[in-house]
Design goal:
This protein has 22 helices and 14 strands. With about 500 residues, it is an alpha/beta fold. It folds into 3 domains: about 120 residues, Nucleotidyltransferase, domain 5 (2-Layer Sandwich); about 180 residues, Nucleotidyltransferase, domain 5; about 180 residues, Hypothetical protein af1432, CATH 1.10.3210.
């Protein structure tokens, strides 16, 4: 996992463009602007704003866009273009989706909007919209295997992903606005419409025991309700995962909750509550038809897919977690080279480590000094909370908790905050102990090098019998004093070994 980073490459990376890029998503229900902080591997939102224009309201009956929505969209997109340019966006992608695509006056609307806002509007085909949704998920989870399902106001997109590629895809008029209008508010009729549409998608039934990735605002709200109902320890939507039967059982419980109970759940708007039962019904039917092993809620979707599509090829190939860690280290003024050195130096302590654990350990080594500006009494807590709650990390919840704990133990040996139990609750005790080993190793590496590159690699660390042996060059002033002997002993005690320093 470790790689050599040359000085030339680091200079090129440091000089890369950080001009923001923007995506305006002109959807059937809402129009949203996201301005991203430059063309980096991870889509980090600089600004995120939406307006409910309901362009697709009445489309099922009239075949045309909502006149009131058109007027609001003109003003909204005009504002969004001004914001994006004020924030320095060098590129603005404005995308029309299902309602604009399907309405008889959609092209005329897009043309008029382009003229008024002085920006090109691209109307996505069903295939293009589906592919961008899948790209969004692949942006955060490159190894995703299964079906990406994106539910909007006007359509439902399904795309098969695997091997970092997309294959089968379909788009259906099952968006919540259109489905509600088509069913006239009748749940049974809505279910019949959903079933009839899904029956035609034979490829969906062949994805048994894989993963269903749920994308879209309605399903994010549903995830919030599930988290609240479960008393789940981590209130983070991205990669929140449920087993299939667990999800179906939860949806049945949620369907019986009173309006008052639902309104008390933090983060779920009244507008989303109105469509929650129908959104749950669509997802439940998909679970029954596709029979996935697990359901994963993703905060990455069509907009992130557009962002990912526009990245240079060499940036798309980067690992999202490692790349983000490098970005955060550089932003904090810390050496990424020192992080790679520490990763390689401590590797002998983890002989049975798998590829995923190696990647997480590398990310933590890169992040280990990011919180140096915090007060020393709060560095452990701030590092832990920041990583645990980052909205765009793209990690499963267990791995997210593991990374947060590793950084906590880098700064503090023993847990002292109750919130640490949130992470402990997600992990096996054996993994927690390994993370403490890792955190204490990072503390030792810092004691040897003060976070500077070039020093840790002059030493070595390995287990010999019942001893933890640190070898340092004899006569080197850098290692004549310091706290590294105490750090070594603490690490050795934790591992049940005897600390030993050898000169060479």
């Amino acid at each position: 996992m470790a790689r050599k980073v040359t000085s030339k490459k680091r200079r090129v990376n440091a000089k890369r463009s950080r001009k923001p890029v923007a995506v305006i998503d002109i959807g059937s229900n809402s129009v949203r602007l996201v301005v991203y902080d430059g063309q980096t591997r991870t889509p980090i939102p600089l600004h995120n704003e939406k307006a409910i224009c309901a362009l697709g309201k009445g489309l099922e009956k009239t075949g045309k866009l909502n006149p009131d929505g058109i007027k609001m969209a003109y003003d909204t997109v005009g504002r969004f273009v001004k914001i994006a340019r004020a924030l320095g966006a060098r590129n603005i992608d404005a995308l029309g989706t299902a309602a604009v695509r399907d309405a008889s006056d959609g092209k005329a609307f897009a043309k008029a909007l382009s003229r008024k806002a002085k920006i090109d509007i691209q109307i996505l085909s069903g295939k293009q919209e589906a592919q961008r949704s899948a790209l969004g998920v692949l942006c955060g989870i490159p190894d995703a295997e299964g079906i990406v399902a994106d539910l909007g106001g006007g359509s439902l997109e399904l795309v098969k992903v695997g091997g970092r590629r997309m294959s089968e895809h379909t788009t259906m008029p099952l968006g919540l606005l259109r489905l509600s209008e088509a069913a006239g508010g009748d749940r049974e009729k809505a279910l019949a419409i959903i079933d009839k549409a899904l029956e035609k998608q034979k490829w969906v039934t062949k994805q048994k025991d894989q993963t269903l990735y749920a994308v879209g605002g309605a399903w994010r709200s549903l995830a919030r309700v599930c988290i609240a109902q479960m008393n789940y320890p981590l209130h983070v939507l991205d990669n929140f995962t449920l087993e299939r039967q667990q999800a179906i059982s939860l949806f049945e419980v949620i369907s019986r909750l009173s309006q008052r109970s639902l309104e008390q759940i933090k983060g779920v708007s009244r507008a989303r509550l109105a469509t929650l039962p129908l959104g749950a019904a669509v997802l439940e039917r998909l679970l029954e038809v596709a029979k996935p092993r697990a359901l994963v809620f993703s905060i990455y979707g069509m907009r992130e897919g557009q962002f990912f599509k526009d990245l240079p090829a060499h940036v798309r190939k980067q690992d999202p977690i490692v790349s983000l860690a490098e970005e955060m280290a550089r932003a904090a003024g810390r050496s990424t080279e020192a992080g790679y050195e520490s990763f390689k130096w401590m590797t002998p302590l983890f002989p049975e480590e798998g590829p995923k654990q190696k990647k997480l350990r590398l990310a933590a080594c890169l992040l280990r000094d990011v919180w140096w500006t915090e007060h020393p009494d709060y560095r452990a807590e701030q590092a832990f909370l920041r990583v645990l709650r980052l909205p765009f990390l793209g990690l499963g919840h267990e791995d997210r908790a593991a990374l947060a704990l590793a950084l906590y133990y880098r700064y503090q040996s023993e847990p002292s905050e109750p919130i640490i139990e949130q992470a402990h609750a997600l992990l096996a005790e054996s993994r927690i102990q390994r993370l403490r080993t890792f955190g204490l190793s990072m503390r030792l590496a810092y004691a040897l090098s003060a976070g500077a590159a070039g020093w840790v690699r002059k030493t070595s660390l390995k287990i010999t019998g019942d001893k933890l042996v640190l070898r340092v060059p004899q006569g080197e002033p850098m290692f004549r004093t310091g706290s590294y002997d105490r750090r070594l002993k603490r690490l050795a005690d934790h591992m049940g070994l005897t600390a030993q320093i050898r000169m060479f």
